[in-house]
Amino acid sequence: MQKTTIYRKPMEMKRNLTLLAALMLIPTFTSAQQWMKLHHKYDGVRWNIPIEVGAQHFDTDNRQTLLQGHFTNKDEVEIMVPYSIQSIDSITFERSLSDEEKGHNHYRCFAMYIDTENQNTVSKDDWTICHISVDGMGEYSNLSGTARIKGRGNSSWLWYDKKPYKFKLDSKSKLLGLSQAKDWNLLANYRDVTDMMNVVAFETARYIGMPNTNHTRFVEVFLNGEYIGLYQLTEKIEVDDNRVNIDREKGVLLTLDQDDGPTLSPNKYNNFFSKVYSLPMAIKYPDEPTAEQIAHAADEFAVLENAIKAHDYKLVDSLLDIPSFIGILQLHEYFYNVEIDAPRSIYLYKDAGGKYVFGPVWDWDAGFDFDWSNMYTGHDFFSNYKELIYGTDPYRASGASYKISMFFRDMFKNKEFVTKYKDTWNSNKDSLYLEPWIKIEKYTSELMKGSYSRDLKKWPVYGKNVSAEIARMSEWLQNRLDYLTTVINNYPEGDNNTGTGEIDIVRTIDKNVTCYYDRGYSQWGSIDIDKNTVKSLLGAQSSSQITLLPLNADGTDGTNTAAGTYGAWFGDNGNTVNYNNNSHVFIESNDMWSWSYGCHPSNCRYGHTHTVTMQYRYNKKAVNVVVTFNIE
Question: Looking at the domain assignment, is residue 258 inside a domain?
Answer without folding.
Answer: no
